[in-house]
Amino acid sequence: MSRSAAEQAEIEMAKRLKKKQVVDERIAKATEERGVTILLTGNGKGKSSSAFGTMARALGHGHKATVVQFIKGRKETGEQLFFGQHPQVDFHVMGHGFTWETRNPELEKQAAEQAWEVAKRALADPEVHFVLLDELTYMYKYGYLEVNDLVTALAARPAHQNVMMTGRTAPRELLDSVDTHSKIANERHAFEGGVKAQPGIEW
Ligand code: ATP
Ligand code: MG
Fold first, then answer.
1. What is the pTM (predicted TM-score) of this model?
2. What is the predicted pLDDT for the residue at 73?
3. Does residue 54 have its Cβ closer than 6 Å to ligand 1?
4. Domain match, 146 and 50 both
5. 42 in ligand 1 pocket by Cβ < 6 Å?
6. For the CA of 168, the nearest ligand
7. Which residue CA neighbors atom 17 of ligand 1 most closely?
8. How many Å lie between the centroid of ligand 1 and the Cα of residue 26?
9. Range(s) of the domain holding residue 116
């Protein structure tokens, strides 16, 4: 015997209420108030731009932020031109050394260590509410920095501080330590379709 439309609607409503109850219970359980560590990896586009978008959110709430970009691009990026001017942002781009175009391991290691000193200072500063370590994970891939130093600094940071880190891949120790990890997959990219990289989208 088939159900009447009224019966069906009642079943649907009961299902929805049950779902809401489960969600409400979860919300009630998430009571801890503290900063989080967020890692964005994967081959798809959207890691750095998501991190800068989140930083805009934090700035909107009056939070102070520190940015360290661990890879220096060929061009000045829109994020540096924009956020570098912002009174709540301390913006650093890793000095000479690592670019996608030139490789000089000795100089790169030196530059990575200097940039890490800046990052470490921010991770210990309770005034800094948001820390963005962009393209950081490559430094571990190339053996320029020690991942245990990062994990230790993250664990010891001020309780309310939020940290976002990006890079295509990340070492196991970091993957295991963060609160949130999202992996952005590449389904398609305009570049593969022959579209030239452009300001405002790529950099
Ligand atoms: P975005 O800064 O745009 O958020 P991203 O941080 O996820 O990108 P990166 O690996 O840092 O990506 O690469 C930066 C540059 O490479 C950007 O210009 C981006 O558009 C481009 N890019 C990212 N993913 C791809 C891809 N799958 N194919 C081609 N180019 C890509
Ligand atoms: Mg990036």
1. 0.90
2. 75
3. no
4. yes
5. no
6. 1
7. 202
8. 35
9. 32-186
Separation CA 69–CA 91 (nearest Å): 8
Measured by CA distance, the residue closest to atom 28 of ligand 1 is: 189
Ligand 1 site, residue 78, Cβ cutoff 6 A: no
Whether the CB-CB separation of 192 and 43 falls below 8 Å is answered with no
How far, in Å, is the centroid of ligand 1 from the Cα of 44? Answer: 7
Question: Separation of 180 CA from ligand 1 center, angstroms?
Answer: 21
51 and 100 co-located in one domain: yes
How many structural domains does the chain have? 2
> What CATH number is given to the structural domain containing 181?
3.40.50.300
Q: In what order do the strands lie in the sheet with 162-166?
A: 89-93, 65-69, 130-134, 162-166, 37-41, 180-183
134 within some domain:
yes
Closest ligand, as measured to the CA of 69: 2
Same domain for 18 and 48, yes or no, is no
Measured CA distances, 30 to 27, 34, 37, 39, 196 (Å)? 5, 11, 16, 20, 45
pLDDT along the chain (203 residues), means of 10: 84 93 91 96 98 98 98 87 98 77 82 97 98 97 96 98 98 98 97 94 94
166 strand-pairing partners: 40
Residue with CA closest to ligand 1 atom 19: 202
- Whether 7 and 69 map to the same domain: the answer is no
